[in-house]
Design goal:
By secondary structure, the chain is mostly helical. The chain contains 4 helices and 2 strands.
């Protein structure tokens, strides 16, 4: 853009190539927006989908392997403690979480919260005799907070599912 001041008047003249450059910029921006928003996301979505499923399959397989190892040690030692049962319960919850993902393609947020609660219960059972009383109270408080969070999230999920059903009608 060229600005000329002649006898008190301002005259704006555009260079002939400016219109061509603006047109190229608009066309390029539209193509970039098309590639950047929908097409590129759709083209790369498979990587997320398959890598997530592969990683969860590995987690599931390693969880089964770890559970098998712990069961083997329990049978070999002929001794089962309450902490061992909690650990097996954690393994079962992880396998259930992986299974829930394969059924619904999403992980309910309450499952990791329940796993964390079980892990804290296991810590209480394992270390309750050695820890200070305030540590036991803190761990119990953490379980209470997680239980409240799981309840709130399950209510939110219930409302979300009801909204989804209303949209589908």
């Amino acid at each position: 853009m060229v600005i000329l001041k002649d006898s008190g008047k301002t005259v704006v003249m555009e260079h002939p190539y400016m219109n061509m450059m603006k047109d190229l910029k608009k066309r390029g921006q539209k193509k970039f927006e098309k590639v950047g928003s929908m097409n590129l996301n759709e083209k790369l979505h498979w990587t997320t989908l398959y890598s997530e499923k592969l990683l969860l399959a590995v987690i599931g397989a390693l969880t089964v392997f770890a559970a098998g190892m712990d069961i083997y040690h329990m049978l070999f030692n002929l001794k089962v403690d309450l902490a061992d049962l909690f650990l097996l319960f954690i393994y079962a919850e992880i396998i259930g979480m992986v299974g829930a993902f394969y059924i619904s393609n999403r992980i309910p947020v309450t499952l990791p919260i329940i796993i964390a609660m079980t892990a804290l219960c296991r810590l209480i059972v394992l270390h309750s005799k050695d820890n200070e009383p305030w540590v036991l109270i803190a761990e119990a408080g953490a379980i209470l907070v997680l239980a409240a969070a799981a309840y709130i999230m399950s209510m939110k999920e219930k409302v979300s599912l009801e909204k989804q059903k209303m949209r589908d009608k």
